[in-house]
Amino acid sequence: SSDLKVAPYLVPKAEQLNVPTIRHPDLSPCNIFISDSGDITGIIDWQHATVLPIFLQAKIPKHFQNYGDDDSENFRRPKIPENFATMTDSDKETEMELYRRWQVHYFYVGYTSRLNKAHFHAMGKYNLVLRNQLYDTAGRPWGGDNTSLQAELIKIMGYWPEVASPEDSPPVYYSPAEVEECLDRDAKQKHADDQMQQVRDSIGIN
Fold first, then answer.
1. pTM
2. Got the DSSP string for 24-40?
3. 159: helix, strand or coil
């Protein structure tokens, strides 16, 4: 299949990016125990932890990331809007949630850059993010969802010179029509998934 043809090219040549690294698979607030004094006393739910090369492990945990927000992605210091005091209660609640997500992303990146330089170095390379996303999508128990996988392959092909060596030709080719059709299908699927999640959240059932 296409992903197996691409797989040999995904391993970076830099030795420091292939160091075996253990990573918690679900570093969410409910899995972190904190004492009254604010110290971390334990982390639970390790049963799906894996040891993989750091280029596959280095990422912001999903509960702390705020991708899609320009301020977060450009590491701007979080701040509350100047007109916050005059907003309605509903708008204030929305802005505080945005501020909280911005803060968590900002401090995770900031402290990682200071305290875990190897992780920060690997996390900051866009071509590694692309490899990461393809690996994660291919490894999901996805039950027939080949649209997401094909969309990630198309994305990789678009950045192929940054992913592989200059002498390596792309092992997979998609025509412009195939690219347009797949990305449109992927966008519709993501939209449907978002709508379904909103329904689950509103009625409190996963």
1. 0.74
2. -S---GGGEEE-TTS-E
3. coil
